[in-house]
């Protein structure tokens, strides 16, 4: 008997879910309402694609496991992307000061445009023999509260059709209608948590100057506890000899789309490093804005009733403030959980969908704890009031962050957690507790840890700096 699966959405989460299913069922249909470009190019339904994206180590490893013949890392590097060690190749100002760049290269990050990553995954996944793409919009689930049996779709002209399937995966992103679809089947009470700091993103592409091909990733983060809107910046090297500069600001401190204001915003951060770098770089694009950035967590795994044959993955189950760079990796880990749970079971096996939902929730919860615990402290945030436990944990993490700036051991432990390679409980191990309470091994840095060659590039670009600024 033929086994069919439907995946709603052809973004990263949907493509990877299709990859997870393609060797385990007879037919996978990916539903996508947008017309997809043939190569690396923007698409209408992905406004966040114009902003900086970083693929964490955990996400890359999961994708390589799901698509072992793809060689994603090699393809991205061959196309001009970069692999950057978080511990040695990033210049980062954290809430508690500048992080050191250690001699040890660990926690590699893959940087490129979202367009390139999406195009690479589309080519690999949609080219598989049992995987097909259909341009249509999912409008409802078929079946009952006991079992989902397919989806009702509408094409571009509005004509409706029922598609039957043994398994439906909703990877429809932030705009997912899964809660409403389930309610129509009689499943209600899905708990939702929102932490909305009002973040607005503004991004612009610049030409990378000659000689700066190895310039580090630059991150300037806000301090959530300084009672000011959280303003941040990332300068990310991407293919084509370009820098992608992404600025962000929480409620009351948002960037705008004005090009002149873009530079002023970057120069007005806790440190003007990104602003000084782009002040002399050639802009290659207009400023792109995005406002759909709130943290939203839907606890599908805790639903009292859950139908067989239905799974929700990616941003449809949890969407994060993009500043933390977790979304793509959480999507990859969710698809890996789908492959792992389905690998030894039939699509009709009792309890399979709930097992997948709970397994995928492990990565979701780890990322949610990191993002929501930071954003809830910014002025004007829309969220539940912090509990006593939130206050205690925040004080501990802040101290650990300060210690990590001067301790390789604590720094790598935090990197394990922030890149979703280890569970957050790792930070509560007795040895790390003692190291955190004991304080940093080295004194804080007075400025960004640039090499002499990197300083020369900075000074060659800087049109606004002063000799006193490193």
From TrEMBL:
Keywords for the protein's UniProt record, in alphabetical order: Signal
Keyword Aminoacyl-tRNA synthetase tagged: no
Signal peptide span: 1-19
InterPro entries in the record: FAD/NAD-bd_sf (IPR036188)
Protein name: NAD(P)-binding protein
Naturally occurring in which organism (per UniProt): Streptomyces glomeratus
Organism placement in taxonomy: Bacteria, Bacillati, Actinomycetota, Actinomycetes, Kitasatosporales
């Amino acid at each position: 008997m033929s086994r069919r699966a439907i995946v709603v959405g052809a973004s990263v989460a949907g493509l990877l879910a299709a990859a997870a299913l393609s060797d385990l069922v007879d037919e996978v249909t990916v539903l996508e309402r947008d017309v997809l470009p043939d190569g690396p190019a923007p698409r209408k339904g992905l406004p966040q694609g114009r902003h900086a994206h970083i693929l964490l180590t955990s996400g890359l490893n999961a994708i390589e496991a799901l698509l072992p013949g793809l060689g994603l890392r090699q393809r991205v590097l061959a196309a001009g992307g970069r692999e950057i060690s978080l511990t040695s190749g990033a210049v980062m100002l954290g809430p508690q000061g500048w992080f050191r760049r250690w001699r040890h290269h660990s926690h590699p990050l893959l940087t490129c445009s979202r367009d390139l990553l999406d195009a690479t995954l589309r080519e690999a996944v949609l080219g598989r023999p049992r995987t097909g793409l259909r341009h249509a919009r999912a409008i409802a689930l078929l079946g009952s509260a006991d079992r989902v049996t397919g989806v009702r779709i509408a094409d571009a002209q509005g004509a409706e059709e029922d598609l039957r399937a043994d398994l439906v995966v909703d990877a429809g992103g932030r705009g997912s209608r899964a809660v409403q679809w389930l309610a129509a089947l009689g499943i209600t009470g899905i708990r939702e948590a929102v932490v909305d700091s009002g973040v607005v993103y503004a991004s612009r592409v610049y030409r990378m100057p000659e000689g700066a091909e190895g310039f580090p990733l630059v991150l300037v983060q806000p301090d959530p506890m300084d009672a000011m809107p959280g303003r941040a910046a990332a300068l990310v090297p991407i293919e084509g000899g370009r820098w992608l500069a992404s600025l962000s600001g929480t409620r009351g401190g948002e960037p705008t789309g004005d090009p002149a204001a873009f530079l002023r915003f970057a120069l007005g951060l806790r440190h003007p490093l990104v602003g000084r770098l782009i002040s002399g770089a050639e802009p290659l694009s207009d400023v792109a804005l995005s406002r759909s950035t709130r943290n939203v967590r839907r606890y599908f795994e805790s639903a009292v009733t859950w139908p067989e044959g239905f799974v929700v993955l990616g941003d449809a189950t949890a969407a994060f403030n993009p500043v933390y760079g977790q979304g793509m990796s959480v999507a990859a880990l969710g698809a890996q959980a789908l492959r792992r749970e389905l690998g030894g079971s039939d699509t009709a096996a009792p309890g399979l969908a709930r097992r997948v939902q709970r397994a995928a929730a492990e990565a979701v919860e780890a990322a949610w704890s990191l993002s929501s615990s930071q954003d809830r402290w910014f002025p004007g945030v829309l969220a539940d009031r912090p509990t006593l436990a939130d206050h205690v944990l925040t004080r501990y993490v802040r101290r650990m962050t300060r210690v990590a700036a001067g301790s390789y051991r604590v720094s790598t432990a935090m990197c394990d957690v922030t890149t979703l390679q280890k569970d957050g409980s790792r930070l509560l191990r007795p040895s790390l507790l003692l190291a955190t309470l004991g304080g940093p091994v080295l004194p804080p840095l007075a400025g960004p840890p640039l090499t002499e060659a990197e300083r020369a590039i900075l000074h060659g670009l800087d049109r606004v700096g002063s000799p006193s600024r490193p």
